[in-house]
Structure formats: C-alpha cells, structure tokens
Amino acid sequence: MVDRHRLVSRHNPVYGTVETLAPLSVGNGKFCFTADCTGLQTFFDAYSAPEDGFPLCTMAEWGWHSYPNAPEDDSRLRLTPLDTFGRAVGYGIDETGQEELFRGLRQNAHKFHLGKIGFTLEGKPPALDTCTVRKQTLDLWEGRLYSEWTLAGTPVRTETLVHPWEDTLYVRVTSPLAAAGKLQVSLSFPYGSHKKSGADFTHVSGHRTVLTRKTGGGVEIERVMDGTRYRVTVGFTGISPDTLGDTGFLPSHTLTLGGKTGGPDTWEVAFRFAPLHIPVLDKEEDFREAGREQNLPSFTQARESCSGFWKAYWMSGGAMDFSGSADARAQELERRLVLSQYLTAIQSRGRFPPAETGLSCNSWYGKFHLEMHFWHSAHFALWGRAGVLKKSLGYYKKILPAARRIAASQGYKGARWPKMCDPRGLNSPSSIAVLLLWQQPHPIMLGELCYRAAPEEDFLGEYRDIILETAEFMESFVHWTEGGTCGVLGAPYIPAQERHDPKTVLNAPYELEYFRWGLKQADLWLARLGETPRFGDTAEKLAPPPHKDGLYLAHENCPDTFSAPPFCTDHPAMLAMYGVLKSEKIDPARMSATLDKALAVWDWNSLWGWDFPMMAMTAYRLGRLEDAVGLLLRDSPKNTYLPNGHNRQTGCNDLPLYLPGNGGLLLAAGMIAADKQGFPRGFNVQTEGLYAYL
After folding, report:
1. How many CB atoms lie within 10 A of CB 124?
2. For the segment 279-298, what is each residue's pLDDT rounded down to a tens digit?
3. What predicted TM-score, i.e. pTM, was given to this entire model?
C-alpha cells in the first residue's frame, strides 16, 4: 500500500527566499488565490511588473467582465470566403477594415482579478526590500500555505487557505505589529482587464465599490464594473470595527482592516466572493452562494473543512510512488506528478474547461481553448477522478446550440465545436483559431474515457446527442474522391501544427486518424445504446496517413516536413496518431523512424509543454521506454517545471505557467504506469487506483 501522506508531503514546496517567478497558490478548483512571500498579495507590483512576471491574482470561474459597448455576438463580422472543394465557406480570419469589432470579439468577455489582498504597514504599502522570508511552506496534504517572514525586522506569521466549497479566502495573521496597531490588511479592487494580470488599477473612474453593510464582525461590499456585479463579504476577529469608515462609496476602491494599539496579536479574516450578475453566464444562480445571509464559517471551521477535503482528495484517486528507485530521475518525476495533481485540483475542477493559465492569470484573455481541453483534463479519468472530468464535459451540452450554428453556417451537418471561446461558446475570430480542426473529436474521446472509468447506461444516453452530432460534423467535413471510394480531409483547415497554409492542407495525419477513431467510437456509442451504427463505412474509407521516404508527413502536400523551415517547428503532431491514439493504420517501424527524425531535426525551443508528454506516449507505444522517460524529463525551455510545480513556457512571457503541460504529464505517466510494460529498469513504481488508457 502506498503511504500517500508521505508521498505527497515530501514534495511540499518550501521556500527560504522570495520566488517571484514561482509564487504559491491555494484554491478549490473554481476559485484560486495566488500569494507572494507574505501569504497575501502585498507585493503585487514587484511580482507583476517584469514582462515575464507571474501576476498575483484572485480569480473565480464566474469572474467574467466585458468592456462598455463590447460586441454581443459576431453577426456583424465580415467573413473571408475560402474555397472548399468548389464551394465558398466563410471564416472570421481577417481584421482588415473591422479592427475594432474583430479585437472586441477577441478581448471580450475576459477573466478579471477579483481583488488584491495585501498587508500595509502604518497605512502604507511596504517595499519588498523591507521583507525577509524565514520559511514559506505549501502543505499539499492540508491545502494550506504557511508564511513566516519579517516586516521591518518584526516577525509575522500568516496562514492562508481557501474553503473547499465556497469562493472564500481565509487568513490568520500573528505578529507584534498587529498588537501594536501598525499592521493592516487591505482589499483593493481594480478595473477588469483583458491583459495578463486581469487588473487595471489606473482606471479608477470606470467602476464602483460600495460598502453596503457594516457590523461588529464584518462588512459587505458590492462591486459594479460595467455589466458585471459581484459581492464581497468580509468577516474578521481581532480587528477593531472602529477602524472602518462609514458605509457608502469607497472612491479609492480600497478597504483597510486593522487593530488598535494594545489589541490582540492574532487576527482572522475571511473574504467571500460571490457573483450578482455576470452577463455571459446564462444560469448565474448555479454560481451563487446558498444565500446572502449565510454566515461565514469561522477560520477554525474552514480550516477543518479544508483539511478534510484535501485528505480525502489525496486518499482517493490514483497514486504513483517512485521511492526506492535506482534511477536518479525518479524523484523529480514524482515531484512533478504530485505537484501537477495539486495544481490541476486547484485550477481545473470547475464547470468550464480551464484557460491555459487556469485561474492564476489571463492567457488569451482567460478564454477556453477547446483543443487544449483534452490536455487539461483527460488525465482525471486515468487517475480515478472521472467525476471531475464530467463536470467540464457538461460544457459541451451548454454550447451545443452554438456549435450547431457554426456547422450550419458553413454548410455542414451536426455540431462544429469552437476553438477559443467564453462561457457562451462564441467563437473568437482569429487568423488561426477558427480554422483548427483537432478539437472536434475531443468530446467523443473525453466521453469515452469517462465511460470506461464508470460504464453507466444513463451516461450513454446523456451524451448521445453530443457524440452523434460531433460525428455528423466530422463525416460531413470529409470530401470524397475517386468516385466516392476515398475520403480525405482537405482544405481549408489548419492542423495542430500551426505552420501550414490552410488552403493547401490535405490529410494531416493526426486529424485524419482522430476523425477515423472518433467516427468508429461514435458507432460503438450508438451500439451500446442499441442503435444502428452509422459512421463505420466513412471511417474505413478515409485515406491512409501520408508518408514519404519511410517517414510520416505533416500532411500530404508537405513533402519537406523534416527539411525546410518552418515545418520542423511547433508541434510534431504526426506523432500523436500513435501516442494519443493507437491507429491500426500505422506502421510501427515507420512511426519509430519518424520519431527518430523528429528527435534529430525538430526545433526544441518552439515546442510547447504538452508536446513532451505527447511524444513520450508515442515512444512508449513503440516499446521505447527509455525514450519515453527521457522525453517526459527532457531539459528544454518549454519543459521547465518550477519549484511550485508549474510548467513555465520559458521564452513566452504570456505563459508563466501552462496547465496543458501539467495535465499532459499526468496523462502520459498514468498511461505508462497502468500498462503492463510500465517504466524502464531503474524505476521502482508502486501504483494504486489508476485506470488504463486507450
């Protein structure tokens, strides 16, 4: 039996210095708080100011904002007609002459920073050089952050946690500065921003902050920011309510809490965030607290709930213990896996697919990239947490009408899933995004992984329409040649490797085999329901994956895949058809040679975090176990794993973290550990609760 407490706890991040590029976060999967060395966001500017900085944000999955006069839909967008086997299909790919509308659709709606919470010293923000870190520890088993530090030479201890079921931050502070009346906690509200920090502290006139209620043990604040409204309830002990001003507008958008001279040296403060009106959410009641008058749990109660949740989380689901391994790499792989489980738990367990930076900060305005949903969340099914995956899988039911409209507007059947979108499923215009294709089979794949983990007939019926209409689109996208005997995936589209002219792409192999697999899987889904299969003939008649000189190509019209730039950059996606998938159309010897060629000539600096686990999965399927581990741990800029466990995309300032890399790592390692071959010699691996991959 795996000693799960020991496994998890030996990878607690412990800091003795300020780590501005690797701050620590606490969260519950739908609400996340990222802290600096003080356990709060005291030094927001110092962490956020560098171009490659890691902003300290407070974010919730319901936290969406749009600028005034933002376009509500894309009905006015001028589409560019692209030839599609003799007929014109329009795509929103060109902003020329419609720049404001184009950019407005991309930037709205966006996630935003709900509120900066930090310390002040005698009413003023302290400088970073007045703070010294003694020890900061993120207790993974308990889900709590402990920070011991000095401010102006005086010790301070901070304990920070998030309630497991409420969007509430809890803080306990102990310091002589509190008893002396010199230390305060401030809550400052920014205007929403589409930029990385999600915050604009300069636009003070664009929003309203109103102190609506004040009691001896707390206050209530309402926030109005264009169409977005939310409430913050603050509860406290050890703080004097006399230090608070009267109810009414807070022109500085800042609430400051403090004690009096001779007061207690320990405070407890809670900040509950709850939506009142978020325009892009159809059913806002689903995101609200149980009731406005519900009392805030005490710090002790919240602490107990937090500890109970995290203990149950770590004791359930999968585990992978590498202790006793002779291979020196095993400990680092184990560290990355444990921290990746924590990070996906605090960032990616909500009702929506995550943004690529989760709830830490904005990437691409905080919108979802549905082609990344697989890399974010497929691992949950393998690690015994299929219920988590089912939550975000429900998003496809919500946006099915939008996906149907996209398909119908382009002359296709079924549902065509958007790529970059907000909760409404509105497809953001882009020179690339709207032409991507590889997200289409994802609902079938994710649904199948859930079903294999828990084969329930009700689940088959619940997702029947999603599976069926996804397959209907894929089948209608196929073009028939040679008198209807051969199906091809032809232009226009951009494959997963975003380096190709959409007008010339033909039979990109990953998309081709993913469509083949998805169509067959849809038939299996129908058969399980007792219905007649419909898509097998199309799947069998799809063209074989293109190859040349013993190597699989990026697509049929790209003979220079491995010899001419830019074709040997970005994702080597042809490898995915025998890693993510196990296509029966693949010649393993040819795929092995293709992997060798990619390892030899590919531009490693241009890869992304999920490419490494994707290639590792291919190597493993080929029986190349040592290569699989080497790829998971390869020293490369985009495969950097920081002390906090985040997969930093070094060289890409917009991505100080990258959750598809963490999710991909969990998926690949889970696939290997649950298979009979397992890890190579030198790895002593004890596993529990893992499910086999495809």
Report:
1. 8
2. 999 765 556 643 445 789 99
3. 0.97
